[in-house]
Design brief:
The complex is a heterodimer. By secondary structure, chain A is an alpha+beta fold. Chain A folds into 2 domains: 2-46 and 295-448, no CATH class; 61-281, no CATH class. Chain A has helices at 2-13, 16-53, 69-78, 113-119, 122-125, 152-155, 212-217, 223-229, 252-269, 287-290, 292-330, 332-340, 345-389, 410-437, 440-443; strands at 56-59, 66-67, 82-97, 103-111, 147-151, 174-179, 197-207, 218-222, 238-239, 241-246, 283-286. A 6-stranded mixed beta barrel of chain A has the order 3-4-8-5-7-6. Chain A has a two-stranded antiparallel ribbon with strand order 2-9. Helix content of chain B is 60%, strand content 15%. In chain B, the strands form 2 sheets. Chain B has a 6-stranded mixed barrel with strand order 3-4-8-5-7-6. In chain B, helix 6 packs antiparallel against helix 18 (418-433). The radius of gyration of chain B is 34 Å and the shape is elongated. Classes of the chains: A alpha+beta, B alpha+beta. At the A-B interface, helix 2, strand 3, strand 4, strand 6 and helix 11 of A face helix 6, strand 3, strand 4, strand 6 and strand 7 of B.
Chain lengths: 449, 550
């Protein structure tokens, strides 16, 4: 009991302890705000990548693709834990807007819109055909032409607030898309003539995935058209990938392992077929593995930021150390009296540890509360700063970021609070140990009183 | 750095001279007597406002005008003081002298030596300043590399007309007659699909260039893996096959950086030299078909060429996306109907001693004359031509990067404010435990202001030592940042820096001395501020109470 009483008394009476409390609160506040924003950005980016790729991807990076995909896709679709699948052609092409001199290289996805929307979040990214995704390739103007869905940054420009100005319908524009048709061996299918396949498409919709690279360089066209353009049609048709969505109760790793086992089995059964050599480059990956090169960069930045804040947090440990050292210097008589009436060394350490816990609790509470309050208003503050001073945390016309993430994660808060407690205890332990070593006979000498 | 220091010195001098001259004039020349408190405050406030207006007119961008507020406080004191200007000055000098007096310095060293806890504050200052210097240096290094990459890729100034520029050789000749211009070269831009081999197709950007001239304007020669060591200008000539055109390919087009080490396989890239690749590009041409009503249509053009060299600039996007062909050959292929030479851009290298402003002025003048006299362009077309320095082209992204650096430094700066609290705690403790020292000093006749200065100076001293260590740590970390990053990769398997994410193959590792100086000054001021309350406590100590026998 005396531990709690004395600890509370030191906290209230010793004004210097307010400084320690202030330092803890400041650190907790800053770390909560920065980590919430950073984690929010990373989670949002991961979620967008997950939505783009589905749960599992079976495919190859080679532009030749792989054959006999349809049978395997059927087998996967029959699995009880699979919700849907989508077969995709992935290739590169040259796009030119009709009537202009400008052409550019783009990535092309050949998809079946309905199945791709079921397997991935594609359906949610389009603007004009959200209600009936099957008509996403039906142009509003020239219905004789197949439609194409442009990455939104290829069709529109973001304003300063990161918003796009959509019209009633997509504008009446045609694009000619050219691809190199490749044989199953990867050679040019029309090498002799030196020609490539070109087809005209009508702009039918835009896709806003929220991923800058995708939105600025990816075009969706109908699966069959893509297959013809890049020479993957013919007898043994080829495709690049199969995107798979698992049922909600299926764990990502478990589902992917099962699909992997099925793929190995499928390869074994079909190893004697003419184009079985194309199976060699096919991999079965979770969405995280598939989009690793993009997601990993942001995760690393989060790690670096955490390390940097840990370094800065060392200063807080120093402050706690100094405050405790001071208090123990001043309260040597208290310690002497306590020890003279039989309190053990561990009791003295316990007393100052309780004080450290008090400080950590109050500092953390204050910091968390301040952080929560600030995060709640962070977007309004940014709006005000933008309206008043033209300041934005991120220029929305450059970065594909919407609102600043402000959802505090309980796990993050807990980790930060535990770190604050640990910092306080680490800072307090050496002075507490020194206090415990004080001898009553010295501290209670008459010339010390 | 010297320039910055001199500028700081000049700014301080101007602030104090302008701020105090009117006060001294009124007090010691016009009135020659001390003023009442109210009139002093009134006068000081009036001149405070006047000074703020003057400094704003002089171009001051300060939001707070803190230094003018300090001038205001001192003005109040000067108006009221009964001392003559001689006494005032001698007091000031003696305070300054006593601040540097050896007793102070001796006590600082003694406290630093005896009070081991002070070392904690030194460590905290060192840690915070090192972190801030490293962050600022890395950001500014990245910005510098970003701007330099544009200069290396495109020269100092770029001219981009709204339509294709015809007869560019004549224009370049005119440009090169100017003293401020060292060299100029033309570029024809296009996009295409490149078939590199079995199943390997890439979307690429094509630069039709004059290889020899471009090497004089940009850093092309340094980037060529094979031809950079040759004495003659880079060229697209293919050995033993004069009828086949040659081309350069970015290293990233041929091979990807290694997943773990982020390094390119140079041997694999060099193996591509001499091999033939097929490029498909094209341009809008007018069709003669009556059914299409002579409409303009984009026509594809295949180009087969031999890889003559590999380009490695160290800038990921340039290495990954670009191929280089002869401008004449590219024009013949995609614009066969155009007989006069055409270009999309003119890139210019300025003379070594020429400034960007002079260069821009000369280029604008030459362009305006050439476009109106030789091309017969209207004023509208001439004014629509973009003439810009390559650094200005990057300014939007650079300002965004600077903003992010500012936000990050602000966050770390706020967290580093806890250093002030730490110094406050430690100094408060020293004052409490050294009350007898202070009482003895005061009993010997030392004024309270000197005692206060002793602790403020000690705070500053801690700031100086801490920030000196901070600069040293920051220097070691920044200079070895690439080795540290590699060590982290080897030990933890964590590749922090990737050219595909951060554009450059290596982390910029130059210390930015300008921001280092500012951070060091802040650290010293912050440390002195931390000592302010303990200094006030020390001033309030009464020797008579402390030195009593009982």
């Amino acid at each position: 009991m005396y531990k709690i009483l004395l600890a509370s008394r030191y906290l209230i009476k010793r004004r210097i302890s307010y400084l320690a409390f202030l330092a803890v609160a400041l650190c907790v506040f800053i770390v909560i705000v920065v980590m919430t924003v950073m984690i929010g950005l990373v989670s949002d980016f991961k979620e967008k990548n997950h939505s783009f790729a589905g749960d599992c991807v079976v495919g190859t990076d080679s532009l030749v693709g792989f054959a006999y995909y349809a049978d395997f896709a059927d087998e996967v679709a029959k699995l009880d834990f699979v919700e849907s699948t989508s077969t995709v052609i992935n290739t590169y092409g040259l796009i030119n807007r009709s009537g202009t001199d400008v052409s550019r290289g783009v990535q092309i996805f050949g998809i079946d819109p309905k199945s791709h929307s079921l397997a991935t979040g594609f359906g949610r990214t389009v603007h004009y055909h959200k209600d009936d995704i099957s008509k996403v390739f039906v142009p509003a103007y020239d219905t004789n032409l197949p439609g194409c869905v442009l990455g939104i940054d290829m069709a529109m420009i973001r304003d300063l607030r990161g918003k796009y100005q959509f019209g009633q319908m997509p504008f009446n524009t045609k694009f000619s898309i050219s691809c190199f048709p490749l044989t199953a061996k990867g050679a040019l299918a029309k090498a002799g003539a030196g020609e490539i396949n070109t087809k005209t498409f009508s702009y039918s919709d835009v896709s806003q995935s929220g991923l800058a690279r995708i939105d600025s360089s990816l075009i969706y066209i109908p699966f069959e058209q893509a297959q013809l353009l890049c020479g993957m049609g013919g007898v043994d048709k080829r495709a690049s990938r199969i995107h798979i969505k698992f049922k909600s109760d299926v764990r990502l790793g478990t589902g992917t392992n099962k699909v992997g086992a099925l793929w190995r089995d499928y390869m074994r059964k079909n190893k004697d077929k003419a184009k079985a050599n194309l199976f060699e480059t096919v991999t079965v990956q979770t969405w995280k593995e598939h989009r690793r090169s993009f997601v990993a960069a942001m995760e690393k930045e989060q790690t670096v930021l955490t390390v940097m804040f840990s370094l800065v947090g060392i200063t807080t440990v120093f402050i706690i150390f100094v405050v405790f050292y001071m208090i123990i210097c001043h309260k040597s008589k208290d310690i002497g009296i306590l020890k003279s009436i039989g309190v053990s060394n561990s009791g003295i350490i316990g007393l100052f540890s309780s004080f450290a816990v008090f400080l950590a609790s109050l500092g953390s509470c204050m910091g968390v509360f301040g952080g929560w309050l600030f995060l709640r208003k962070i977007n309004s503050i940014e709006d005000w700063l933008f309206a008043r001073f033209g300041f934005q945390m991120w220029d929305r016309s450059i970065y594909a970021i919407g609102d600043i993430p402000n959802q505090i994660e309980l796990r993050t808060v807990l980790v930060i609070i535990i770190s604050a407690f640990a910092a306080c205890l680490v800072g307090a332990i050496v002075p507490a140990w020194q206090g415990a070593k004080l001898r009553p006979v010295e501290s209670l000498q008459v010339n010390q009183l | 750095m010297l320039k910055l220091f001199l500028w700081l010195l000049f700014s301080i001098l101007v602030t104090w001279v302008i701020g105090l001259s009117s006060v001294i004039l009124i007090r010691y020349v016009l009135l020659r007597r001390p003023l009442s408190r109210k009139i002093s405050i009134l006068l000081a406030t009036f001149f405070w406002v006047v000074n703020i207006v003057i400094f704003i007119l002089l171009g001051s961008k300060s939001g707070t005008h803190v230094s003018l507020f300090i001038v205001y406080l001192i003005s109040c004191y000067i108006y009221q003081t009964p001392n003559s200007i001689k006494v005032l000055l001698s007091n000031f000098i003696s305070e300054l002298y006593s601040c540097c007096y050896y007793i102070n310095f001796f006590l600082w060293l003694r406290y630093l030596h005896k009070k081991k806890i002070v070392l904690l504050s030194v460590a905290a200052v060192a840690l915070s300043s090192a972190l801030l210097i490293v962050v600022a240096s890395l950001f500014l290094g990245f910005i510098g590399a970003f701007e330099q990459s544009a200069v290396d890729a495109m020269g100092d100034i770029i001219i981009e007309p709204p339509v294709k520029l015809a007869r560019y050789p004549e224009f370049i000749e005119r440009l090169e007659r100017e003293e401020v211009i060292k060299a100029a070269t033309a570029t024809l831009l296009s996009n295409g699909l490149l078939h590199l081999g079995q199943g390997n197709v890439r979307a690429v950007k094509i630069w039709g260039i004059q290889a020899g001239k471009r090497a004089k304007v940009t850093g092309l020669r340094r980037s060529l893996l094979r031809q950079k060591h040759l004495r003659f200008d880079p060229s697209f000539n293919v050995e033993n096959a004069e009828d086949i055109p040659g081309g350069f390919i970015g290293i990233g087009v041929v091979t990807e950086p290694d997943e773990k080490s982020d390094e390119y396989d140079f041997d694999k890239a060099l193996d591509m030299i001499g091999k033939y690749v097929v490029l498909t590009t094209g341009a809008v041409t007018e069709t003669k078909s009556p059914t299409e009503n002579n409409a303009k249509r984009f026509k594809r053009k295949p180009i087969k060429f031999a890889v003559v060299d590999i380009v490695f600039t160290g800038v990921y996007d340039l290495d990954k996306n670009f191929i280089y062909l002869s401008i004449d050959m590219l024009q013949k292929k995609i614009y066969p109907d155009r007989t006069d030479p055409i270009a999309d851009q003119i890139q210019i290298k300025l003379a070594d001693d020429a400034s960007s402003a002079d260069g821009l002025e000369a280029v604008r003048r030459v362009w305006s004359e050439f476009a109106s006299q030789e091309l017969g362009w209207s004023k509208y077309f001439i004014s629509e031509t973009v003439i810009i320095t390559s650094k200005e082209m990057q300014s939007r992204y650079v300002s965004e990067l600077r903003k992010q650096m500012g936000v990050l430094l602000l966050i770390f700066g706020v967290v580093s404010l806890s250093v002030v609290l730490l110094i406050l705690c430690i100094f408060y403790m020293i004052v409490e435990t050294r009350q007898k020292d202070i009482a003895i000093i005061k009993s010997c006749g030392t004024p309270s202001s000197s005692v206060a200065l002793l602790f403020l100076g000690f705070g500053g001293f801690v700031g100086v030592i801490g920030s000196a260590f901070g600069v040293l740590f920051a220097y070691i970390i920044t200079k070895n940042i690439n080795a540290i990053e590699e060590w982290i990769r080897l030990v933890f398997g964590l590749k922090l820096w990737k050219s595909s994410v951060y554009m450059f193959s290596s982390i910029p590792n130059e210390i930015d001395w300008g921001s280092t100086l500012i951070i060091v000054l802040f650290a010293i001021v912050a440390a002195a501020m931390g000592a302010l309350i303990p200094a006030i406590v020390a001033v309030q100590i009464k020797p008579v109470n402390i030195l009593r026998y009982e």
